[in-house]
Amino acid sequence: MITVVGTGTGGPAGVPELDKAALVVGGRRHLDAVEVPEGAERVVLGPLAPALDTVAAYVAEERPVVVLASGDPGFFGIVRALAERFGPGLLDVRPGVSSVAAAFARAGLPWDDAVVVSAHGRDPRTAVNVCRAHPKVAVLTGPGAGPAELGAALRGERRVLVVASALGSAGESVERVTPEEAAGRDWGPAVSVVLCLDEARALGPVRTVAGPQGLRSLPGRPAGWALPEAEFTHRDSMITKFEVRALALARLGPRPGDLVWDVGAGSGSVAVECARLGAAVVAVERDADGVERVRANADAHGVGVRVVHGEAPGALDALGDDPDAVFVGGGGRELPAVVAACARRARRTVVVAMAALDRVPAARAALTDAGLACDGVLVQSSRLAPLPGDVTRLAATNPVFLLWGVRPPAHSEGVCE
């Protein structure tokens, strides 16, 4: 049997299983905090594979093993690796309070609506984009992905960082700082977790489903995606129609951890839908009244969209991080230059919607010239419309060309010509 004990932030006061343990595994600070019985082997966790091999040797001889971990070891912790190697049936898990729960408790906040993301041993870009997209995020930090790196990436965002260090110890510290303040400090190795908060939205409504997507279950909130145009404020029907939006969203593939640009946002319907699906979103709009319209639609749907007042392609230079996906709307003379600028920076895909046939060849060339594999379709639809006498006709909507360019994997060659 392998007994896994969560210590530190509210873990068990004692570890009685230690008296019978033949092997005790844990981080150095965990091992230093307990009295390992005489004769028991002690393994300090570093690289995981050698430690698991040692555990396997003891399990094969049916000798008892104790693994010490921080907080709740089943929450982004060692329980996953142990269960994958030895099976859940061999584990006796004694959880403590997770660092995330402890940090929110210190901040005086509920966290049933929070997103939790790990940057420990992972690309911090995902954590940064989750922080941009959601008002309440807990980030499990690691080397190269701590408060300073998060703060540097979130400069200018309307966020407060709550940095919780050495939780559950005599040296515990909880500090509230701006991203700029966090970026300018050396935080050392004791950081347990960082909360990233939009304080204006940190106390969301009561929900019945935990997590950020629980908002969709609230009364009055629309379900699904490709929402009807009536769900958005728009000017003179200048909005991406829901049939086109449905296909655009399928090609954009917005998801938590992604950064999406909506260039020439208009009403911001695509931006809002991408944000509802969990992506961080930047909407670029040249008209001042359009900027306010995008903000109003984002607020109405309870999502965060960063709105930039400016005209592409020039306004794109100041956007910072490269996007995973880009939606380009409109069809002015600058469209080829806008598509080319977006295609150079997009990590995954660019989707372009156009009403004018004349713009299609240049937009397609801009995608392929940037090395993207190009495809497209003409979207034509007819909607049911009532006629006098309680009968129905089909009312055609304006046709729209939808092109998309996808960046091939590094090993692939050639693009669609």
How are the secondary structure elements laid out?
Blueprint lengths: L1 E6 L15 E4 L1 H5 L8 E4 L3 H13 L4 E6 L8 H8 L4 E4 L4 H9 L7 E4 L5 H10 L2 E5 L6 H7 L6 E6 L7 E5 L1 H5 L7 E7 L44 H11 L6 E5 L5 H8 L3 E6 L2 H13 L5 E4 L15 E4 L6 H11 L3 E6 L5 H10 L3 E7 L2 E6 L3 E6 L3 E7 L11
Parallel strand pairs: 1-4, 1-5, 2-3, 2-4, 6-7, 11-12, 11-14, 12-13, 14-15
Antiparallel strand pairs: 7-10, 8-9, 8-10, 15-19, 16-19, 17-18
Helix pairs in contact: 11-12
Structural key phrases:
417 residues, alpha/beta, Cobalt-precorrin-4 Transmethylase, domain 1, Methyltransferase, Cobalt-precorrin-4 Transmethylase, Domain 2, Rossmann fold, 3 domains, 7-stranded mixed β-sheet, 19 strands, 26% helix, disordered C terminus
Computed Rg = 26 Å
Number of helices: 12
* CATH class label of the largest domain: Alpha Beta
Per CATH, the superfamily of the largest domain is: Vaccinia Virus protein VP39
Number of strands: 19
Q: How much helical structure, as a percent, in the residues? A: 25-40%
Pathway: Cofactor biosynthesis; adenosylcobalamin biosynthesis
Domain Methyltransferase: 260-330
Keywords: Cobalamin biosynthesis, Methyltransferase, S-adenosyl-L-methionine, Transferase
Pfam families: Methyltransf_25 (PF13649), TP_methylase (PF00590)
